[in-house]
């Protein structure tokens, strides 16, 4: 699978506007849907890179399918659920990318320590299982459990042994991890630049970060929707919440990210800060454009 890396909004817009592959992908997705307008849900055959086996990907209207002039359009990024690992498109692609990096490092005889900014999730469950099966792979996850708890405290909640971390002030020592992954988390922190600085601090030299965030491809500026002022939430835009297994209300979105996000990563010291674009029918990575963010800490 080809992963294209972009460091600027302009380069990426040029790709979207001009590259024949991109137009083919988009037309292909339209054709898939034109044959399935009578279906509330359907499945596509493919190959799961997380399971490493042929599989069936399920598509339905959950997570905000759109009604368009041509009919309904699924939220590809949040669907295409593998019937074996039950992971959706976005999370499978993230694990695929992390797996390749981890396996390369392990094959060179290096150990790999990984930190995921999540713990009560299917993504973490998979990583944790792998860390028990693979020698020299260790994996830590955490959730935010409230302001009164000290970072690093282990709490028995929905599952046993949940580690509490405030990602704006991590309790880990400097240079602790080879890989950090943060999946749709940074939009929920008051000061994402502080969380980015903490990621940089706890990452080892030549360590890599893999990030997904809700992202506005057409915007440069990151828009603050809310901020904490003396411990109180001040809404600058109408409050927006995302699903959170630990809270009925969900998690408040503090920031709508634009390309400025890449500048924030660079300012923290990260190198080769990139939007990584990918697409694959075989692997169930539909929904042009699909992407995650990647960077590394220099030696
Ligand atoms: Zn799978």
Description:
With 299 residues, the chain is of the alpha+beta class. The protein has one domain (4-296): Vaccinia Virus protein VP39 (Rossmann fold), CATH 3.40.50.150. It is 25% helix and 33% strand. It has helices at 9-18, 20-34, 89-107, 122-133, 192-202, 260-267, and strands at 4-6, 42-48, 53-59, 66-68, 71-73, 81-82, 112-116, 137-141, 154-155, 162-163, 177-183, 203-212, 223-224, 226-229, 232-235, 241-244, 247-252, 255-256, 271-280, 285-296. The strands form seven sheets. It has a seven-stranded mixed beta sheet, with helices on both faces. Strand 11, helix 5 and strand 12 (203-212) form a beta-alpha-beta unit. It is globular. The two termini are 28 Å apart. The model has no long low-confidence stretch (mean pLDDT 94). Residues 48, 50-51, 55, 82, 84-85, 87 line the site of zinc ion.
Q: How is the topology of this model organized?
A:
Layout: E1 4-6, H1 9-18, H2 20-34, E2 42-48, E3 53-59, E4 66-68, E5 71-73, E6 81-82, H3 89-107, E7 112-116, H4 122-133, E8 137-141, E9 154-155, E10 162-163, E11 177-183, H5 192-202, E12 203-212, E13 223-224, E14 226-229, E15 232-235, E16 241-244, E17 247-252, E18 255-256, H6 260-267, E19 271-280, E20 285-296
Parallel strand pairs: 7-8, 7-11, 11-12
Antiparallel strand pairs: 1-19, 2-3, 3-6, 4-5, 9-10, 12-20, 13-18, 14-15, 16-17, 19-20
This protein binds zinc ion.
